[in-house]
Write a structure and sequence with these properties.
It is elongated, with a radius of gyration of 34 Å. The protein is an alpha/beta fold. The longest helix is centred in the first third of the chain and has 30 residues. Helix 3 packs antiparallel against helix 5 and helix 11 runs antiparallel to helix 12. It starts with a helix and ends with a helix. The chain has 15 helices and seven strands. The strands form two sheets. The protein has a five-stranded mixed sheet with strand order 2-5-6-1-7. A two-stranded antiparallel ribbon has the order 3-4.
Length: about 400
């Protein structure tokens, strides 16, 4: 069972700009040292280094372009122009060419001493030629952090696809019908079990280890299957009347009080778990845990921006470090149900509430004021649910301006 602080500690935050700041600081210190030691050759050395750093990727891009044009132009790049897609895809974009051109121009204008040194040109061509070789062999390949950052930024992870599939293929279809299904269920199942506002949402369980069981009562004996909500039949992908339904479980607290709620696991986690069990998928346990967290954050972001699903769900992230507690699942569900009851309030005034206008200008001895006092004193106790009370008076300033005529005449 996770509290909010532990849950926030588990969810990874988006990567920031700290690598860029460190790189900029390192470059500034290095350039400052060069300026101090040899200021007359600063721009020439900078131009030479930029040429080395840009000509190498350009030569590597030409090698990639040869592969794409000879072997993949009709399959991977069908219907796409050479200049519009293939060149930028191979790293031959305008930014790299512009940087190389500006560096060459800067070297031509201010790098007179370096242009006449043969060693510098040998270093330039040798570095540019060796770069594609080391890049192709994977020596200069991107690190795991860079690959992860690219996949997260471009939404290319397995978790992104599973979250969107879970939303578009299931949640967006069933959540708008959930309230009507619960209303019909309660009409046919007269039970003394408590139904609160939090119980009217679909509780979606997301365990970090992605190992889920098909029956909740097998994991916690405080959870019992009650019944299924009415079926929702939707024509989908050629199937007439495809059935979608939810199961209602009765969760008991430590005092034996029962709470009915519609709860289920996120079924895409079965895919993540089965992928981690297949060696051909290349998907180990650390990658699976990372994908589960990305699945949770992606699905939460999708549902929060969905008008059809808003306020009809609750995602519950389960930590696998508390599996030694036999009732950790029921405690997690009850904690979220109680949290919903405390955080969500009804803003409509309770019935049979009499509100007396506070702007009565009569004295306290008048019959009207006596009746008002009688209403306030004899009214029912204050409801636990807050209410909104609107005043019909015009807004008044907090302090009335004080006019001191004596001081004013004194200054005159």
């Amino acid at each position: 069972m996770l509290c909010l602080q532990d849950q926030d500690a588990l969810i990874p935050r988006p990567r920031g700009a700290l690598p860029k700041v460190c790189a900029a600081a390192l470059a500034a210190v290095t350039i400052g040292s060069v300026v101090f030691l040899s200021p007359q050759r600063l721009f020439g050395w900078v131009a030479m280094v930029i040429l080395i750093l840009t000509l190498g990727p350009l030569l590597h891009g030409l090698c990639l372009l040869a592969e794409e044009m000879l072997n993949h132009s009709n399959t991977r790049h069908r219907g796409r122009g050479l200049l519009n897609h293939m060149l930028p895809a191979c790293g031959l974009g305008g930014k790299t060419l512009l940087a190389a051109g500006l560096a060459g121009l800067l070297l031509y204008l201010v790098g007179h001493p370096l242009r006449h040194e043969g060693q510098c040109w040998k270093l330039l061509f040798l570095s540019s030629v060796l770069y594609p070789l080391f890049k192709s062999l994977g020596v200069l390949g991107p690190s795991e952090v860079e690959v992860s950052d690219i996949c997260e930024g471009r939404k290319m992870n397995v978790a992104h696809g599973l979250a969107w599939s879970f939303y578009l293929g299931y949640l967006r279809l069933v959540l708008p019908r959930l309230e009507d299904s619960i209303t019909a269920f309660r009409a046919t199942h007269q039970s003394s079990t408590f139904w609160g506002r939090g119980n009217r949402k679909l509780l979606i369980l997301i365990p970090l280890n992605a190992n889920i069981s098909h029956k909740l009562e097998d994991e916690d004996d405080s959870i019992h299957f009650y019944d299924n909500l009415p079926n929702n039949e939707i024509d989908r992908a050629g199937v007439r009347g495809r059935v979608y339904k939810h199961s209602v479980y009765r969760v008991q607290d430590e005092d034996g009080k029962g709470y009915n709620c519609a709860v289920e696991y996120a079924t895409p986690l079965l895919t993540l778990y089965n992928m981690s069990q297949e060696s051909r998928a290349g998907f180990g346990e650390p990658e699976r845990r990372q994908q589960v967290l990305l699945f949770y954050t992606t699905l939460q972001d999708i549902l929060e921006n969905s008008l059809e699903c808003r306020n009809r769900y609750k995602l519950i992230l389960l930590n696998d470090e508390h599996e030694d507690d036999p009732h950790f699942l029921s405690k997690a569900i009850l904690r979220h149900l109680q949290q919903q009851e405390k955080e969500e309030f009804c803003l409509s005034p309770p019935p049979h509430q009499e509100v007396v206008h506070p702007s009565a200008n009569a004295s306290t001895d008048s019959p009207r004021c006596a009746a008002a006092n009688n209403v306030w004193c004899c009214s029912d106790p204050m409801s636990r649910e807050p209410t909104l009370m609107f005043s019909l008076d015009k807004p008044q300033p907090l302090r009335q301006p004080v006019e001191n005529t004596d001081n004013y005449q004194g200054f005159m």
